[in-house]
Amino acid sequence: MELELTAAQLAELDADLAQLKARLTALLTDTELQAKPVKLKDNASRLSRMDEMHNQSILRANRNLTSNRLTLIDRAKDRLDQRTYGRCSSCDETITFLRLKAYPEASKCLTCQSDNEHG
Ligand SMILES: [Zn+2]
Questions:
Q1: Of 1, 29, 46, 103, whose CB is crowded by the most CB atoms within 10 A?
Q2: How far is the CA of 23 from the centre of ligand 1 (A)?
Q3: Architecture of the CATH domain 7-117
Q4: Which pLDDT tens digit goes with each residue over 28-86?
Q5: Dist. CA 8 → ligand 1 center (Å)
Q6: pTM for the predicted model, two decimal places
């Protein structure tokens, strides 16, 4: 059984969430132009165009992950408001502070999370 998070820890994680959200939002803004459909330049070789399209598909996948993470961050903020933050949504145990420092948007404890991943 883990200890409940202290008010100071919650405040720290609240700040982490805000910082993470700002960083990821900026990342999405920065890569917005690059994610637009590839313009086929007449002077570009076929190979460099394929390179560009390949890079872009990676960029798009990363952007999807980033926007999914932003959704999770917003949900975590809601849980903070409702004072349910830091509790596992599956088993209701306290999620360790260390885990929340690494993933402030986590809604499950490590045990439940890995149970999920393995099927
Ligand atoms: Zn759990």
A1: 103
A2: 28
A3: Up-down Bundle (1.20)
A4: 999 998 888 766 666 678 878 888 889 999 999 999 999 999 999 999 999 999 999 99
A5: 23
A6: 0.82
